[in-house]
Amino acid sequence: LRRLTEFERLQVVLVSTRNPLNMGAAARAMSNFGFAGLRVVNPFEEAFREARSALGGRDVLAKAQTYPGVAEAVEDCSLVIGTTTGRDREIHHPLRKPEEGAPLIRARLKASKVAILFGSEKRGLSNDDLSHCHWSIRIPTREAHGSMNLGQAVAIVLYELARRPLTAKAQSKIKPARSGDVERITQLLLEALSASGYTKPGLATSTKEKVRGLVRRLQIPAEDAQLWMGILRQVLWKMRDSEPS
Amino acid sequence: LRRLTEFERLQVVLVSTRNPLNMGAAARAMSNFGFAGLRVVNPFEEAFREARSALGGRDVLAKAQTYPGVAEAVEDCSLVIGTTTGRDREIHHPLRKPEEGAPLIRARLKASKVAILFGSEKRGLSNDDLSHCHWSIRIPTREAHGSMNLGQAVAIVLYELARRPLTAKAQSKIKPARSGDVERITQLLLEALSASGYTKPGLATSTKEKVRGLVRRLQIPAEDAQLWMGILRQVLWKMRDSEPS
After folding, report:
1. pLDDT at position B176, please?
2. With helix as H, strand as E and coil as C, how does A19-65 read?
3. More confidently predicted of B3 and A116
4. What span, in angstroms and rounded, lies between the C-alpha atoms of A167 and A164?
5. Is the pLDDT of residue A240 over 50?
6. CB B177 within 8 A of CB B222
7. Is A83 helix (H, G, I), strand (E, B) or coil?
8. A155 at the B interface (CB within 8 A)?
9. Averaged over B87-99, what is the pLDDT?
10. A10 forms bridges with which residues in the sheet?
11. Rounded-to-integer distance, Cα B118 and Cα B130, Å
12. Local confidence band at A75 (pLDDT 50, 70, 90 cut-offs)
């Protein structure tokens, strides 16, 4: 029973998936290993409809929920993990092998929801998608042919998660803030950076992504999230109050 | 180089596979993890032709060889492994988890060829197929939905074979900022709190301690410390710049 509860907290998030067969394969692997929380971001509608009629992962797909963006899909999760097979991309957060990442995820699932993001078949996760992640899992494929089939990548990551014994050590006692709060803090900080003149108006996307990474590397505790928002709002108010009107 | 030779000795044997997509997926996973020896037993001819035109595992498929039966396909191998996800079947040889089987296979590959058999999508391996095997790998799926997609099962087994033994620690550990920098950030934040009116002038010691705790719970990475100081200085400058003088 306890195991079920842990597994139910995991959210597999498929971002911009195009191929219904891959969606079906992801759902089937989820069902094989006992996971049920499927979320789809910006799917090709037709693909999603087709996938729902696929055999194997039908129960999982029937309960899948759709979100307009990654931020909304991970809002209630305290840990957000990206996935990649690539080597060339500049990723500014830790890359972990599946067997290194799995115990960290399992430990976190004891108390809160965790999201694992999988990108589209062609492009994988974008830099914007990755900026919502605390770290990424890299499946160690061959350099000459790194790009994996989506359904197979999902299967390997879930297999690694499921095969863990239940006795994974709980590491940190600090309960981390939910992604929704972390993102609100990020937005307030972005406003403060702009209001202070630290960044120029008309912020470049790359700067936003950098700031998002900066805030996520802090690992803000849940208990402090409201306080940080209050501080940032006050600082913002003060800076704006003094603008020449 | 030695590793390559080892990997070349592995023969993935698909028995009576029907779906060209699964054949293609198996070949793609082989290519992802560096295996090349694909053998197909009694394939549906049309499926095999279609699969050959699939992207991803094209090199592997082009070199694949066809055999009339399992006996012929494993003739030159010194170890033959079956695969199953089932529980109900009477299997008269050892069943091993992927992580238990992988080291045994790797050891054998140092000197001789090893075959891993995967059965058809509908029926898996027959008792006759299994009678050629020394033991089987069972992927630990859920009892209520054990049957895996063929391409995903191949991917998981090959992933287990290809991944190296786990080296002690996660490589990318975030180095935390030195206490001196953390305290400098704390002081700048205290000044900002005061300048913004968040705290009253003549700060109570207890408030200072609370803020110190607040900053330390963030676990600021060393690489980000200077950036945070810069941000705080800029915000401070902006707030002070606007004070009535």
Report:
1. 74
2. CHHHHHHHHHHHHHHCCCEEEEECCCHHHHHHHHCCCCCHHHHHCCE
3. A116
4. 8
5. yes
6. yes
7. strand
8. yes
9. 78
10. A114
11. 10
12. very high
| A134 touches B at CB < 8 Å | no
Q: State the pLDDT at residue B243.
A: 62
Separation of CA B55 from chain center:
21
Strand partners, B19: none
Count of C-beta atoms within a 10 Å radius of residue A46: 10
pLDDT higher at B204 or A68: A68
CB atoms inside a 10 Å sphere around CB B116 = 27
Stated pTM of the model: 0.75
Do A235 and A192 contact (CB within 8 A), yes or no? yes
ipTM, 2 dp: 0.74
Rg of chain B taking only CA atoms, in angstroms: 30
Angstrom distances, CA of residue B39 to CA of A25, A36, B44, B131: 24, 35, 13, 18
B143 touches chain A (CB under 8 A): no
Residues in chain A with CB shorter than 8 Å from the CB of B138 are none
Give the pLDDT confidence score for residue A1 in this predicted structure: 42
Nearest chain B Cα distance for residue A205, angstroms: 18
Tell me the residue type at B155: A
